[in-house]
């Protein structure tokens, strides 16, 4: 997924995973129960893409105000930034289990508020609640799984949480499609997320706290009792001793780097190894978001409508393909990331993303240029005052086409003979839309009929194929490997905040950009930003595949340079390009 991490695991770990959970189903119960948080994370970030189409139908002010649509979508991201920060404190102070239970309450309250919302402001409040839950779940679920699972299958179980995130997004698109004909449409789409939150809450009540957290709270006997359920009897003593040593080292590291955020920031940026690690870690996280991925995940049906598919059902059905490809791409990355390397996979992915965005920009430009013309007779034969006022007062109405009509905040009623023939430009009113459709014509208000539309959807899918195995998952892996041990949690946290903030900026401005620059200009802008991201990745991000943490630290101590710009000297040890 876009906002969550995916653990590093190989085929051996997945084989061991199946064997272990078959012998000890308790481990599967722990991982599945916590993993529902990942499912909720994915569902609540994906469901708004389809629900927004119907919210706009029910609330005229949402349909008219682009910024209000952006706020409804992005407030979950804003809540997630705060939720992740508060969640870290709750995790340390009260435990992982309590944090997951609180996240479930937030998910449930947010879902109910949105389902019964009488006005847009309540949907926004509900989105904030859901966002708080997303922020807490994004860090707590994988943390709980990693601390409550055997080391030999830890990577595979955490990776499964990542799959549940993308799976949750895919399910949200299926739910959206299933409720398109149901009374209440978007209320069901948003409200149904309360059900898995209740299921997880009830399951977590019967499960223990993380043994690692208990050990940190000097509750060694309780921690040992849990480890006895997870490990074979002969391994328990070794695991207790290893956990004790690990916690002691962790506490020593915390004292060394400082207890408050200011001290940690000063220590991190004063250490050139950590500083260079942050350059790489933050670069890949920001580049991930500014690839525009969440414009697709949050606004996919809207983008499909921009491409000329007026039907909401068709838009959501085609959007389902992009979500499915994202989930498949996440699985594919597991097989390629250790074979091709992190750096190479990101560079190839970024080149593919740029290429697809440029082609999408061209396609949307061609679609706008070849939009159906406006026919004066078609526009004036409807009811009195039905014709778009701007069209009637235009100096040169013969130059108008469908896109000109939509930019004037009017609607396009297609020609009855063919959608691509000259049609009518009418005032944007519900009764006129009904009249248009009553004459077996199609009503367009977000995009124009276009022969390029299907190609745009195909390249949107290709964009996802390029994104998911590389920029979709690798940045999280890089951030788990690039920092010295004592700064790993801090560095990963800083990079995650950069990821969430970038996500917020993108989701909060996408529709405004499309209004100002058009779909073509917006995709071209993202392509340009991705090109900058490609340059930064090439210059700042080293290859960490197959390197021990100590080797990565030594490489950053010297200072990383791309192979083409590296000065060679005798006796130099080869460094991965």
TrEMBL record:
- One Pfam family recorded for the sequence: Sugar_tr
Major facilitator superfamily (MFS) profile domain spans which residues?
30-545
Q: Which InterPro entries match?
A: MFS_dom (IPR020846), MFS_sugar_transport-like (IPR005828), MFS_trans_sf (IPR036259), Myo-inositol_Transporter (IPR050814), Sugar/inositol_transpt (IPR003663), Sugar_transporter_CS (IPR005829)
Q: What are the transmembrane regions? A: 30-55, 67-86, 98-117, 123-145, 157-179, 185-207, 315-335, 347-365, 452-478, 490-511, 523-541
Keyword line: Membrane, Transmembrane, Transmembrane helix, Transport
An example molecular function term from Gene Ontology annotations: myo-inositol:proton symporter activity
Q: Which Gene Ontology cellular component annotation is one that this UniProt entry carries?
A: membrane
Claim: Transmembrane is one of the keywords in the record = yes
Which family is this sequence assigned to? Belongs to the major facilitator superfamily. Sugar transporter (TC 2.A.1.1) family.
Name it. Sugar/inositol transporter
Task: Recall the taxonomic lineage recorded for the source organism.
Answer: Eukaryota, Viridiplantae, Streptophyta, Embryophyta, Tracheophyta
């Amino acid at each position: 997924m876009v906002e969550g991490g995916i653990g590093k695991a190989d085929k051996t770990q997945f084989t061991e995973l199946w064997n272990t959970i078959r012998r000890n189903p308790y481990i599967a119960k722990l991982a599945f129960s916590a993993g529902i948080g990942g499912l909720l994370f994915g569902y609540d970030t994906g469901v708004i893409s389809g629900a927004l189409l119907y919210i706009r139908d029910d609330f005229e002010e949402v349909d008219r105000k682009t910024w209000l649509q952006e706020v409804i979508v992005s407030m979950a991201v804003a809540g997630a930034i705060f939720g992740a920060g508060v969640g870290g404190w709750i995790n340390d102070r009260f435990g992982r289990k309590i944090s997951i239970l609180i996240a479930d309450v937030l998910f449930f309250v947010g879902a109910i508020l949105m389902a019964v919302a009488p006005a847009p402001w309540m949907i926004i409040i509900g989105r904030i609640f859901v966002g708080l839950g997303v922020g807490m779940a994004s860090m707590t679920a994988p943390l709980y799984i990693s601390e409550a699972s055997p080391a030999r299958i830890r990577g595979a179980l955490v990776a499964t949480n990542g799959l549940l995130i993308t799976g949750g997004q895919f399910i949200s698109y299926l739910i959206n499609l299933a409720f398109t004909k149901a009374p209440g449409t978007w209320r069901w789409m948003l409200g149904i997320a309360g059900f898995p939150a209740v299921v997880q809450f009830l399951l977590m009540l019967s499960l223990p706290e993380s043994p690692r957290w208990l050990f940190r709270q000097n509750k060694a006997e309780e921690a040992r009792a849990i480890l006895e359920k997870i490990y074979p009897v002969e391994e328990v003593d070794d695991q207790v001793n290893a956990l004790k040593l690990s916690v002691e080292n962790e506490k020593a590291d915390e004292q060394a780097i400082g207890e408050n955020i200011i001290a940690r920031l000063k220590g991190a940026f004063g250490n050139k190894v950590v500083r260079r690690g942050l350059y790489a870690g933050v670069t890949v996280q920001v580049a991930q978001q500014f690839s525009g991925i969440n414009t697709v995940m949050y606004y996919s049906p809207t983008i499909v409508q921009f491409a000329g598919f007026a039907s909401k059902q068709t838009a959501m059905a085609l959007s389902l393909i992009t979500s499915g490809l994202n989930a498949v791409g996440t699985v594919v990355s597991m097989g390629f990331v250790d074979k091709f390397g992190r750096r190479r996979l990101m560079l190839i992915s970024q080149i593919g993303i740029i290429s697809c965005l440029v082609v999408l920009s061209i396609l949307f430009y061609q679609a706008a240029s070849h939009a159906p013309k406006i026919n004066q007779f078609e526009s004036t034969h409807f009811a009195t005052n039905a014709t778009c006022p701007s069209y009637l007062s235009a100096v040169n109405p013969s130059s108008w086409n469908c896109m000109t009509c939509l930019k004037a905040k009017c609607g396009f009623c297609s020609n009855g003979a063919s959608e691509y023939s000259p049609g009518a430009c009418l005032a944007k009113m519900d009764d006129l839309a009904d009249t248009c459709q009553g004459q077996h014509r199609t009503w367009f208000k977000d995009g124009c009929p276009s022969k390029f539309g299907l190609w745009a959807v195909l390249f949107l899918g290709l964009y996802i194929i390029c994104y998911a195995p590389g920029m979709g998952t690798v940045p999280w892996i890089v951030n788990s490997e690039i920092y010295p041990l004592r700064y790993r949690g801090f560095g990963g946290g800083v990079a995650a905040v950069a990821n969430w903030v970038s996500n917020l900026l993108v989701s909060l401005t996408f529709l405004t950009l499309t209004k100002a620059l058009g779909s073509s200009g917006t995709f071209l802008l993202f392509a340009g930003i991705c090109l900058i991201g490609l340059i930064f990745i090439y210059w700042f991000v080293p290859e960490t595949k197959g390197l021990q943490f100590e080797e990565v630290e030594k490489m950053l101590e010297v200072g990383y340079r791309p192979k083409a710009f590296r000065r060679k000297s005798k006796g130099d040890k080869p460094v991965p390009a």
